[in-house]
Amino acid sequence: MLGSIAHPGIVVDAREDRIKVKIESASACAACHINGSCTTADKAEKIIEVKPDFRLFRVGDHVEIVMSEVQGLRAVLFAYVIPAVLIFLILFFGMLLAHNELIVGGVIVLALATYYTILFLLKDHIKKQISFYIKK
Questions:
Q1: 65: closest CA among 81, 78, 82, 53?
Q2: How many domains does the chain divide into?
Q3: Of 8, 16, 24, 73, which residue has the fewest beta carbons closer than 10 angstroms?
Q4: Residues 132, 67: contact at Cβ < 8 Å?
Q5: Residue 55: half-sphere exposure toward Cβ, Cα within 13 Å
Q6: pLDDT tens digits for range 55-79
């Protein structure tokens, strides 16, 4: 059975219509005890926008951002799997038909630009399907 994905965060902006929470996303390297002397350490801060529920949150509150695993898998599908499949399909069929790397590369770039433009235009619809919840 699928559960949920949770990340600790800090409220950086709290309003009636939305709450912004800062989370730190760290790779396995960032947790390593020698990451200060290594250039591969990867740590990034992200701001997640959450619709508030009936509870009040204040700036500086320590909270948890929660998302169901199904929604997380859907986000990975949209962001990584579909574009990768698109690239490989265009590359495979393009090289069979065109035999020209420049044309195939241009078609791949055009297809990815179109795909991400469509995602951008549908972002409000996608936000309804993929949403975060906040817990104290």
A1: 53
A2: 1
A3: 16
A4: yes
A5: 10
A6: 678 888 899 888 888 888 888 999 9
